[in-house]
Automatic annotation (TrEMBL):
It comes from the Eukaryota. SUPFAM superfamilies: Proton glutamate symport protein (SSF118215). GO terms for cellular component: plasma membrane. The keyword Membrane applies. The chain crosses the membrane at residues 57-76, 96-119, 131-153, 173-195, 207-232, 244-269. The keyword Transmembrane applies. Residues 1-24 have a biased composition (Polar residues). InterPro entries: Na-dicarboxylate_symporter (IPR001991), Na:dicarbo_symporter_sf (IPR036458). This is Amino acid transporter. Keywords: Cell membrane, Membrane, Symport, Transmembrane, Transmembrane helix, Transport. PANTHER family: PROTON/GLUTAMATE-ASPARTATE SYMPORTER, PROTON_GLUTAMATE-ASPARTATE SYMPORTER. GO terms for molecular function: symporter activity.
């Protein structure tokens, strides 16, 4: 008879752990070590959260704050406090707000002191130097744009005009833009400044300024490429000439759609970064951009407002606007208004 070969049963691929028990101490017996097997579950390493998950996690807190605020507002509206009680509550409330305003600078400086204590002195020196150079570069770029490009633009289209005299008449609007950081909030002041010059008719500057407050974002177009290049250099991302061109085009086109409200330039910076470097995540250097945005965004607003006034003056000259013949009421007869 032929020999019959039997195959051993296939064991499932499971991970086991052997645990040896201590030997028996009884006399006259052989010492054995019993082995106990335990099945270990197949555990996969947890993947780090994606950027989208981080954003969603932060969004939960924002949504929760909005919901709580709405509920509190409805409760206060339903209570309908009398005027005397509301006035009595308002005085301590104002004192509380003033106390918070006094504490905010202390909180800012305390965070700076803690960060300086934790960070290494050499790293802190390099960090402050990099951020200072970024701010200086943005300020120089915006200054050249206002003090060189705009005067050349005015002298190119208006030969007998003094560009610096026109810019000096817009100082009040520029200061308001620096304080408010909003082109939309500065619009009434800009209209008053241009109306006081008697060089542009009200109907023309109302139309040009209303259009320019939404699309005349020269400050964002100048500052965004500098911010993107700064983040790339700090993060070690290489930039070739094609990337520089793409950054410039994306910033120029994207600035047209930036809203005339504070801190919208941060959205444009993120958009340009993901457009030019789609495979690169938003670097940690973006935190430096956020930290300096309170100053840079105000300077952007000043440039945006100045751009609106210069364009308004040039358009008035090109269409032959009879601004010098304005009547005392500030309005022209309809037959004299150029289309």
């Amino acid at each position: 008879m032929g020999s019959i070969t039997t195959r051993p049963p296939v064991q499932p691929s499971l991970s086991y752990e052997s645990i040896a028990t201590p030997p028996s101490s009884e006399a006259g017996r052989d010492t054995f070590s019993s082995v106990e097997t335990r099945r270990q579950p197949d555990e996969e390493p947890a993947s780090p959260p994606s950027q989208l998950e981080k954003w969603l996690c932060g969004l939960r807190g924002v949504v929760l704050g909005v919901v709580v605020g709405i509920v509190l507002g409805l409760v206060l509206n339903a209570v309908n406090l009398p005027g005397a009680a509301a006035t009595w509550i308002g005085t301590p409330g104002r004192l509380f707000i003033r106390a918070l305003e006094c504490l905010v600078p202390l909180l800012v400086f305390s965070g700076l002191v803690v960060s300086m204590t934790i960070a290494d002195s050499e790293d802190l020196r390099v960090l402050l130097r990099s951020v200072a150079m970024y701010c200086l570069c943005v300020i120089c770029g915006l200054g050249v744009h206002v003090l060189v490009f705009y005067p050349l633009l005015l002298r190119t289209f208006i030969r007998n005009a003094n560009p610096f005299d026109w810019l000096a008449k817009m100082v009040r609007a520029q200061l308001f833009a620096l304080a408010s950081a909003s082109s939309a909030a500065t619009l009434p002041v800009v209209m008053e400044c241009i109306g006081d010059t008697k060089l542009v008719s009200p109907r023309l500057y109302r139309f040009v300024l209303s259009l320019g407050v939404t699309i005349g974002m020269d400050g964002a177009a100048v500052g965004t490429p500098i911010a993107v290049v700064f983040m790339a250099q700090v993060s070690g991302v290489s930039i070739d000439p094609a990337d520089y061109l793409a950054i410039w085009l994306a910033s120029a086109v994207g600035s047209i759609g930036v809203g005339p409200v504070p801190s919208t330039g941060l959205v444009l910076i993120m958009t340009v970064w993901k457009t030019v470097f789609p495979s690169e995540a938003l670097p940690a250097a973006f935190a430096f951009i956020i930290a300096t945005d309170w100053l840079i965004d105000r300077l952007h607003t000043v440039v945006n407002v100045t751009c609106d006034t210069v364009v308004c003056r040039v358009v008035a000259h090109l269409v032959g606007d009879p601004g010098e013949k304005l009547q005392e009421e500030g309005e022209l007869p309809r037959a004299q208004i150029p289309l």
